[in-house]
Amino acid sequence: MHKAVEVVYGLLAVWLALYGLNSLLLTVLYIWARRRGRQPVSQPESWPSVTVQLPIYNELHVVERLLAAVVAFDYPRDQLQIQVLDDSTDEARVVARRVVAHYAQMGIDIQYIHRACRAGFKAGALAYGLQRATGELVAIFDADFVPPRDFMRRVVPYFSAPDVGCVQARWAHLNRDYSALTRAQALGVDAHFAIEQRARSQAGFFLNFNGSAGIWRRDCIEDAGGWHADTLTEDLDLSYRAQLAGWRILYLPDVHVPGELPPQFDALRRQQARWAQGSIQVARKVLPLLLGSDQPWPVKIQGAIHLTGYMVHPLLLFTLLLTLPMVLAGSSVSVLVPYFLLATAGPPLLCLVAQTERGPGWWRELRFAPLLLLIGMGLALNNTVAMVRGILGRQSEFQRTPKFAVRNNGDRWQDSAYVLRGTRLVWCELLLAAFALASAVLAFRGAARSLAYWLVIYALAYLCVAVISLTQAAQARRAEATRGSVWSFHRSQVRPWDDPVPGQEVD
Predict the structure, then answer these.
(1) How many Å apart are CA 84 and CA 62, to the nearest integer?
(2) Is 247 in the same domain as 345?
(3) pLDDT digit string, tens, across residues 374-423
(4) What is the pTM of this model?
């Protein structure tokens, strides 16, 4: 039994190290790609028709901001159709309909589309709108994004290549400086978009449409089988099916579209859980197709690592749980594990290199890297639970990440009725923190002192996420005692269309 535990423990450590080493590989590929650059494309003689799809669900605080940005696109009006795909069940529906009517009266081709039921969630809304779309291309923006005025003119020309099925822009941040939490998140998002996406794109590996701030060729969507609602990450699913069908996805690192980072930690939990469960659902669905395809083996291997990337979290959790019996048994394997874990330097290196693109003073953001590390490790239990649901094939409701339209430090999200009420997992995280600390003490007293330092980091990680959750939950409870409805929170914003206006609606 002791030997079996040693073998499992060692295999988990090696498996975890492989993901870290892959981060190092992507960093090297990124440096190579940055030197090569991308060839510019010329403007088309005639601009193709584009349908802009805006899937929203109870987005009272941000829907007006989104629509104001989209109607301001510098693109031929006769070639642009806007669809507001609203599945809302609260006052957001009233506001969205009024705003759409306001712009429609100005002569803008904009439609308000409301479904009687939320079948298929976001994927269902996109598919429903596609049936009524007139554009050759389909641009998609989530409610928390604010695309720049020249977005279309900068992205559409890349579709001059007939095999390009999708073009993804880079996510930027509206509220990076709001708090330490948003700054830490920004480091992680920057690492993904600045390095991982660019490296995969330039190396010819499969990459993914990130669900927002991108444009699809309609023929590509239909050729790949359309939007499917059987996973929680419909964007990742369609991306792989499209590339397996022979289409290319391009990534434009120089086109930035700012979005809102979750200021509430429990909102980040929900977002991460959805991505974790959805990614493993997609892996179950398309990984066998990828491995059985005629793609080169480097593409297959990178695709497998990409689709199973959230496996890092159960690997972290199970490695921790097996540490105590290994330490008590005085196993020599536990002494070697820290050297395997040196590969975890890969993700921090991603963050460091990504920040160099910010120009002078980029290094100041690195002071939030320790917080990002603790959050990433501390979310292991949260994301493992989500992945287990995905592995077991359980279908879950698409739970949106609430947005609060906060940008400056003084803005408050605690006054919104969209605030999440916390999770019971926080108590399990406190127990894991105590477990890790106790294991660290035993390791330090025994022969595995080098392992004790890693265990202390584990303890700090679980303690960190639990304390943030509990602190914010207390803030939200205090605000709940004094706030009105979500509608009254929103009414404090200035809008030029408060008077009721008949709106367009398609059910």
Answers:
(1) 13
(2) no
(3) 999 999 999 999 999 999 988 888 888 999 999 988 899 999 999 998 88
(4) 0.92
SS3 call for 56: strand
Tokens of 217: 């060729």
The total number of structural domains that make up the chain: 2
Return the SS3 of 417: coil
Report if residue 499 sits inside a domain. Answer: no
Instruction: Work out the angle at residue 455's Cα, subtended by the Cα atoms of residues 424 and 326, and round it to the nearest 5 degrees.
Output: 105
- Cα atoms in the 13 Å half-sphere on the side-chain side of 21: 10
Pairing verdict, β 50-56 and 137-140? parallel
Q: Are residues 245 and 345 in the same domain?
A: no
> What DSSP string runs through 43-55?
PPSSPPPEEEEEE
Cα 151 from Cα 169, distance rounded (Å): 9
Q: Of 296-310, 333-347, 463-477, where does mean pLDDT reach its minimum?
A: 333-347
Active site residues: 87, 235
Question: Do 259 and 198 have their domain in common?
Answer: yes
Whole-number Cα distances in Å, 506 to 124, 132, 136, 215, 227: 15, 10, 21, 24, 20
In angstroms, what is the C-alpha Rg of the chain? 23
Measure the N-to-C terminal CA separation of the chain; round to a whole number of Å: 61
CA distances from 65 to 68, 85, 166, 314, 497 (A): 5, 15, 25, 38, 13
Same-domain check for residues 52 and 180: yes
Kindly write down the DSSP assignment for every residue of 198-262, as one continuous string.
Answer: HHHHHHT------SSSEEEEHHHHHHTT----SSS-HHHHHHHHHHHTT-EEEEEEEEEEEEPPP
Domain boundary among 264, 290, 323: 264
Q: What is the CATH number of the domain that holds 107?
A: 3.90.550.10
Q: 164 and 88, same structural domain?
A: yes
Among the listed residues 428, 459, 426, the one whose alpha carbon sits nearest the alpha carbon of residue 441: 459
Q: Which domain holds residue 186?
A: 47-264
Question: 3-state class of 58 per DSSP?
Answer: coil
Q: Residue 69 falls within a domain, yes or no?
A: yes
